[in-house]
Write a structure and sequence with these properties.
The chain is α/β, with parallel strands linked by helices and 454 residues long. It is built from 12 helices and 22 strands. β18 and β19 form a beta hairpin.
Length: 454
């Protein structure tokens, strides 16, 4: 039987050439990763299947300690609070809490999840724009910390305080111009147009809330370190104004997160090791500005890093299900992992590594996921040799946001593993089954199918 005719395609290969940034062309590179933390990838796939998330405990702890050291060596009083929305797998959170982090949550779901694994309420910071009254009451009763986001929330917290017959302490979330674009203005009260000042007046008139902290979160994957210095300076100036004008005692400045990992953001041509500043430069900007304003007794500094700590610790093993040639001649592959579990592929270009050597030249290729959607695109342009069905690829870094933003669409979500400090292989999230998906569903009796029709 004759093979189906395929139109020949001529691709220009630039062996040994360099691009305009002086780095080798991806057309001549083949990246091989056969192990993760010393464990054979084939062994993991044989036991747990593909696709498969794998996390490195060593990397998590080392990244956290690098982050913490950058600030504690420059500032006398720092609290690190793990951002649950970045990755709220129980085992991941427990590692960071073992390292000394408190919990930063943005929903009652995350709050309950932190309590469930043993985090005391007074070690939880509650942020976000949606905090139902019942949840506010639970957090206040437990001694949790709340950063106020809008006027209705002020009103809700005042009602909670009145119902409980007590005065409640809270922080005020502020958005400000730190010289970067886009400016995150949807959260908190704007500093430049006077909203923050008016919010303080409103809170003082209600006499139910005592503001004891200021919070600001500039955005995500912020590559401009000086923006943090500007934000810290403006928060310090507003702190001094509040203490003088309203007689409050501000105990902490919460600078939020947004620190970048070594991911390659789409549209940035420089490799991450050149494009992403060191965490020490961010620490220098933040602590330097605060210490200029406080010669003694500076406020507690709170940082809520997530991406910087967890992203490089996460890998996704995926397999080639099929290969095809697109009408324009471009080589395309269908993987068993797509945007359902790799939501961040919309913004980041992952490192792509083969688990073993595949012969042949690298040619421009597209990686699609398994979903019946045209937008299920893992990588729109990468260089790979001709990959046989079943070839394993390793995508990284994928530790940040892919777990929490994954969705049950068409496919079950895969298992997640943790490789421990001594090479232990622990299953930290089982692969989903039909029972997991339908457990909450109910069929009315009048709609039930007969046994015959089943």
């Amino acid at each position: 039987m004759k093979k189906k005719y395929e139109k020949p395609v001529i691709q220009k290969l630039q062996t040994g050439m360099t691009n305009k940034f002086g780095t080798p062309s991806t057309a001549c590179l083949k990246k091989i990763r056969s192990r993760i933390e010393g464990v054979e990838i084939e062994e993991l796939v044989q036991k747990f299947g593909s696709p498969l998330f794998v996390f490195s405990e060593n990397t998590i702890r080392n990244r956290y300690r690098t982050f913490a050291n950058a600030f504690t060596t420059r500032y006398p009083d720092v609290e690190f609070s793990w951002s649950y929305k970045t990755n709220y797998l129980d085992a991941i959170c427990c590692i960071l809490h073992q390292e000394g982090e408190s919990a930063e949550v943005v929903s009652e779901f995350e709050y309950d999840k932190a309590l469930r694994i043993g985090v005391p309420s007074n070690r939880i910071i509650f942020n976000g724009p949606y905090k139902p009254v019942d949840t506010l009451k639970k957090v206040v009763l437990g001694g949790g910390r709340i950063n106020l986001d809008h006027y209705e929330e002020i009103q809700d917290l005042e009602k909670t305080a009145a119902d409980l017959g007590k005065t409640v302490q809270a922080g005020l979330r502020i958005n400000l111009d730190a010289g970067i674009s886009p400016q995150w203005t949807r959260f908190g009260f704007n500093l430049e147009n006077g909203q923050a000042q008016q919010a303080m007046k409103r809170i003082r008139s209600g006499r139910k809330i005592q503001i004891n902290g200021l919070h600001c979160h500039l955005g995500t994957f912020i590559l401009e370190q000086k923006a943090y210095g500007i934000a810290a300076r403006k928060l310090c100036d507003f702190l001094h104004h509040c203490e003088k004008e309203f007689g409050v005692s501000i105990e902490y400045i919460d600078m939020g997160g947004g620190f970048p990992s070594c991911s390659r953001l789409k549209g940035i041509y420089l490799p991450p090791e050149l494009a992403v500043p060191s965490i020490e430069t961010y620490a220098e900007e933040i602590t330097g500005e605060i210490l200029k304003k406080f010669k003694r007794n500076p406020p507690r500094l709170i940082l809520e890093s997530g991406r910087y700590i967890i992203d490089e610790a996460g890998f996704l093993i995926t397999s080639v299900h099929a290969a095809k040639t697109l009408p324009g001649g471009l080589r395309a592959y269908v993987l068993d992992a797509g945007v359902n579990i790799l939501f961040t592929s919309n913004w980041y270009k992952f490192n792509i590594e083969l688990t073993s050597e595949v012969p042949g030249p690298n040619v421009p290729s597209v990686l699609y996921g398994p979903l019946c959607m045209n937008i299920d695109l893992v990588d729109e342009h990468t260089y790979l040799p001709s990959l046989p069905r079943g070839t394993k690829l390793v995508l990284s870094p994928v530790g940040a946001y892919n777990q929490t933003q994954s969705m049950q669409f068409i496919r079950y979500r895969p298992a997640s593993l943790l490789i421990g400090r001594n090479g232990e292989i622990d299953l930290i999230r089982e692969a989903e089954t039909l029972q997991d998906i339908v457990r909450l569903e109910r069929i009315p009796d009048r709609l039930r199918l007969t046994d015959e029709s089943k």
